[in-house]
Amino acid sequence: MDPQALAVAHACKGFLDEEEGLRLHELARAHAQIGPIVEIGSYCGKSAVYLGTGARAANGTLLCVDHHRGSEENQPGWEHHDTDTWDTEAKAMDTLPFLRRTLRLAGLEQHAMIVVAQSAVLAKIWSTPIGMLFIDGGHSFEAARGDYDAWTPKIAPGGILAIHDLFPNPADGGQAPIELYRHACASGAYDELPTTKTLGVLRRR
Ligand code: MG
């Protein structure tokens, strides 16, 4: 991965381990020819740098989907709130300027598209089969399942479903992502690929 983009990813807000990021990069690079790479939950763009540079290397495209008002766990009073992201006029979070800046610094403005939307609303009008879906949006059971139900049917055969924040031990983190992962495995629609730390990876049959 190009060192300038890697430095941008390191400096970006957000929680993504570098090993997980590099796995996302390789997966995006290997599947961007099948269809666009779609990320649900871009926040400030850390994972978008890894995915976008992977897509770019394969002459593909990344779609960054986020409402940019922050997930439940990012809201004021919660553990992961960052006051820099607070828009005092809107009285709400706004992470869009951070994402735009990250994509610009990483040289990805020509290769990544930002869609400011609730993922389920965009899903209603999205019909292009996708090469890779990365789910890292809201971590409540309702939000995570909503992203899964709206978007996984759009993954092309041979395409990838990647889910972030799998915590087998409930003491380590919320259980919604790993519940989705187990649900996907049980569906019979996917083959399990090796996980990278908390990143689950499945291939659509
Ligand atoms: Mg995450």
Descriptive key words:
single chain, 205 residues, alpha/beta, Rossmann fold, 7 helices, 36% helix, binds magnesium ion
Give me a quick take on this structure:
The protein is α/β, with parallel strands linked by helices.
> How many beta strands in the DSSP annotation?
9
Determine and state the CATH class.
Alpha Beta
Q: Into which percent range does the helicity of residues fall?
A: 25-40%
CATH third-tier fold name: Rossmann fold
Name of the CATH architecture:
3-Layer(aba) Sandwich
Question: What would you call the shape?
Answer: globular
Structural class: alpha/beta
Description of the molecule:
The protein has seven helices and nine strands; from the N terminus they run ααβαβββαβαβαβαββ. The chain has one domain (3-66, 96-204): Vaccinia Virus protein VP39 (Rossmann fold), CATH 3.40.50.150. The protein is α/β, with parallel strands linked by helices. Helices cover 36% and strands 22% of the residues. α1 (3-11) packs antiparallel against α3 (46-57), α2 (18-31) packs parallel to α3 and α6 (141-151) runs parallel beside α7. The strands form two sheets. Strands 5-2-1-6-7-9-8 form a seven-stranded mixed beta sheet, sandwiched between helices. Strands 3-4 form a two-stranded antiparallel sheet. The chain is globular, with a radius of gyration of 16 Å. α6 links the parallel β6 (130-135) and β7. The mean pLDDT is 96. Bound molecules: magnesium ion. Magnesium ion (MG) binds at residues 15, 136, 164-165.
